Amino acid sequence: MYNRVWPLLFILAILLSSCNNSSSITPEAPETQGRLLVWHHFEGHEAEAFNDVLDEYTAIHGTIIIREYFPPDEMVGGFAYRSESGLGPDLLVNHPPFIGPLIRTGFIQELKDFNVDTSNFLPDSLDPLRKQGELYGMPFSLFIQVLCYNKEQVKTPPATLDDLLKDAEEGHRVALFSKFHSIFWGVSYFGGRLLDEKGKVILDQGGLAEWFEELKGAKNIPTFILQDDEEILHETFVKGEATYYVCRSNTIPEIMDDLGEDTLGVMPLPKYQGRSAAPILGVNALLINRLSSSKNKKLALQLAKFLTNPQQQTKLVLATKSQIPVNKKVVIDDNLSPIIAALIEQSETGIATPLEYQEQSFETFRYGQLYYTQVLAGEIEPEEAAREITQHVNDKFGLE
Question: Which CATH code fits 29-143+282-347?
């Protein structure tokens, strides 16, 4: 009897221990529990949506996520300083033109050894994160310019540029942010492109000069507002003093708060002679700190994968009505959210500059602003401006 009881008690002890362990430890706990510091640049509704997704991740996996807000332009210096001191974030979110400078700090982790599956990402969302074959981050969301309009002032928004100009001539005010990078979307109307496949600027090969001429004509229409202060344009539109406003998609939540969701209409920029507008496509990227611990790099990657899965991407875009999903598996019902449908449609014709060519791209917009202003003032002809911009940038970067 004694010999039989002890084996039974031993087996029972093992079973009880197994039951207790299974109730207190989840299968993923060793890999996902920990603490992460995340830097981001989101504000308002976008920050609320981002934090909601982070809270859900914490509830599922137990990872404590500390969040810090940084303006995009202040993040580069802060990241380099904090990382050198061992206090940098494990994961940070930023967008061009700051991705390149962040990578040049040397503290952004290349992802080649992390086996990141990029097959579900939109190709254009990956180009701004690749340089010489290396992937430096995962795309989180996209943003782009679209045409915002006041539905109380117009029943049928313009499908073409000619229709938009006609509406302006009939008294409907059109607000346009008058910076070179913000008006670039019309170059595609005339078959123009910013760069060729090797990164050489080709604005002197057509498109830019013709678009400059079109803008010079529009400037003479009293109700066509070209303004280089975005805050003034925003106020003009939300006060009902302009019918149309070429806005950035990431400003839509603020516009909606001020104007009213029922009053705000959003559509892709109008076409011209059958050609679509091609605005600059921005990407919010998830970047991992190379100096983080091995464990925290894995945790950051796990979080990045969660943030970009179809369910969380859908949740994000529906909550913000401003972020464009990067995951190809996200499907949004046009009737459920016509604003998001318009953003996605416009993103399909947007220009995503590859990371390795971003320096000449931003130099083009910086230097081009000078000539754009002179063209509108009648001090230089559009064709000469296109030649000067092209030659300057190509000479600076040694492109022939």
Answer: 3.40.190.10
